[in-house]
Amino acid sequence: MRSVCEQNKCAGCMACIDICPKSAIKIVDSIEFYNAVIDAEKCINCKACENVCQELHPAKKREPIFWKQGWTNKLDRSKSSSGGLGYALASAFIKEGGIVAACVFANGEFKFQTFDNLTELDAIRGSKYVKSNPIGIYKKIREIIKERKVLFLGLPCQVSALLNYIGEHNADNLLTIDLICHGTPSPNILTDYYAEHRIDIRDIKNISFRKNSNLGLIQNKSRFTYPFNMDAYSLAFLNSVCYTENCYNCAYASWNRVSDITLGDSWGSELNDEEKKKGISLVLCQTLKGKNLIDIADLSLEDVDRIKAVEANHQLQHSSVKTKKYDVFMQSYLKNNNVSEAVRKCFPKHYIKQIIKTILYKLGIYKWGEVMYRITFETKS
Asked: Is residue 78 within 8 Å of residue 278, measured between CB atoms?
């Protein structure tokens, strides 16, 4: 098997697919690894795929010139996973006549779309703890920036790939935001998790992975499980046992970043509990171009302790760490594609506690607030 970069190191940025003139490349997803595999019969050895590969040629990283924590002012902060800075910056960019490119969930897939008005921009809200599919967006952005400005929101590896694709010397009309990333699992794991519960992910209208600091799957505005329990997928993600191999050796997990602006959560914030409940974003800015966008957005920004911010976001120091539980999860999951069973084997004590709490709750012994929760799943009509 001939691959674009070293086998099992692919991040799945998919820029090589966009740039190949002969459509000779496809992503092979084996759950543990992504590989960009080349069809030897179609390949003309032009090396375009290698030149654009962010694994082979990571973009230059810059030291932040500015760092703060904060939230959006006029826009609805409660709809966002954190402080809503991503949505606020995107809104400001569109109001200035620009186009936003970001990941959205539609028809069971996490793909990139472009937006030039505020009407449908809500689709970009929320964290997405799964690998996305950027195929087509690099090519589209390269065409758009010939005439208009583009704001790209994505993972650091995707930003790096985009800069390789268009060439940094052509990036005057491009502004990039990267998201502090723990790592990402294959989307097949999420699809299989829903399938375990007889839910076709294509029948879900909208999906989110957390509400402020509360991690947990929510689809069609319904929690996957009772609010005092964490679903198996979220538990696997939170404990870093389900990412692809490249994520455990990420070239971008550092204080210096490849983008104009970096966004994440302001974990460890010293602000009051009321603000923490509403969600607080962490923002790092690496360029004056990025600072200009921050200045025109309607934000409330507060000072943040750099040392504490880094301590609370380990991806600003190092990649997520692969533990022995990773092997336990993968060995179990790859046997029968059952996420719940794999999580039970990884975290048996936690799993038993959740079952006990559920039983006690149903018996009326364990209470969660004053509201009884009913689990429902809406599907497309």
From this structure: yes
Question: Do 129 and 185 touch, CB atoms closer than 8 A?
Answer: yes
CA neighbor of 185 nearest in space, from 155, 163, 220: 155
DSSP3 helix / strand / coil % (the chain, rounded to 5): 35, 20, 45
Q: Give pLDDT < 70 ranges for the chain.
A: 75, 78, 212-213, 366-381
Tell me which H or E stretch contains 28: strand 25-29
Give strand ranges (E) for 85-149: 99-106, 109-115
Task: Report which residue type is found at 127.
Answer: S
Q: What is the pLDDT of residue 213?
A: 65
* Residues contacting residue 212 through CB under 8 Å, at least 6 positions apart: 81, 82, 277, 278, 279
Q: Where are the beta strands (DSSP E) in 155-280?
A: 174-179, 207-211, 214-219, 222-223, 261-265
Model pLDDT, residue 370: 38
Strand pairing category for 207-211 and 66-72: unpaired
Q: What's at 336, amino acid-wise?
A: N
- pLDDT at residue 275, rounded to an integer: 85
CA angle 183, 240, 305 (to 5 degrees): 70
Helix H or strand E segment including 348? helix 348-362
| Structure letter (DSSP) for residue 60 | P
Nearest to 80 by CA among 309, 322, 280: 280
Q: How many CA atoms lie within 13 A of 175 on its CB side?
A: 26
Assigned token pair, 106: 């539609």
**What pairing do the DSSP bridges indicate for beta strands 261-265 and 281-285?**
antiparallel
CA-closest candidate to residue 184, choices 59, 7, 312, 34: 34
Instruction: Give every CB contact of residue 366 below 8 A, 6+ residues apart in sequence.
Output: 228, 357, 360
